[in-house]
Amino acid sequence: MKRIIRAELVRSAHRAPDGVHTVFLEESGADARLKRVSVRGVPADGYVIDLDASTCVHRGAAHRFPQFSSHFDRAGVAINKICDAALIMEEANRIRVSLVDLKSTAPNLVETNKQLTNSRYFMSYVWSLLNWRDGEQRPPDFSMHVIMINGAKARVGGARTQPDVRNYVRVHGLTVDRVGHASVRWGDFFT
Predict the structure, then answer these.
(1) From the centroid of its chain, how far is CA 43?
(2) Torsion angle of alpha carbons 160, 124, 96, 86, nearest 10°?
(3) Is 95 a member of any domain?
(4) CA 69/CA 45 separation, integer angstroms
(5) Does position 122 have pLDDT exceeding 70, yes or no?
(6) Cβ atoms of 104 and 148 closer than 8 Å
(7) What is the domain count for the chain?
(8) Where residue 63 falls among pLDDT bands split at 50, 70, 90?
(9) Is residue 1 part of a domain?
C-alpha cells in the first residue's frame, strides 16, 4: 500500500519518549473541538493513511481534497464523502483496515456510515489495484469507527426505515483536554 500512496498521505508510527509507538489523527476544521487524537501502541508495521488530506502540503501550501473524487458532482448526496483516516495493519495472510472519522459533536450515524462506506469502497479499490499488480488475492477485513467527544450522544436519525448502523459502526467517546487532544489505544480498533 505504501508503495502506491503519496508519501505525504502516509503516517508511520513514531516512538514516544515513553517508548510506545504512536500516530496522530488530526482534524483541521476551524470549528472542530476534537483537534487531535493520539493512537498509542501502534505495531512497528502499522500506519495511517490520511484520507481527507487535511494536513498535506503540496507545492508549499496546505490543502484539502474538497471531495472524494473530481469525477463526481460535489453536491452529490452520500457519494462524495470520505472519512478522516484509515488505520492499516498488514499481517501474514490478512490485511486489516479500520476506517476512522473524528466528530466534535453528536454525529448522525446514518450520514457518518455513508462516509465510512464510501471510504471502504475506495480502500477496496486500492487493494484491488495492488492485488492485480502483484498477482495476489488478499481482500482486506474492514471495521468502521467514529471517535467523538465523550458525553456526546450518537444518533441514528432519519426515517424508521433507516438501518440501525450501530451494528456496523463502533463509537468511541473520548475525554478531550482543553486544547482538543485525546488519546486511544491502537488495539481498540483491531479487537
Answers:
(1) 17
(2) -80
(3) yes
(4) 29
(5) yes
(6) yes
(7) 1
(8) very low
(9) no
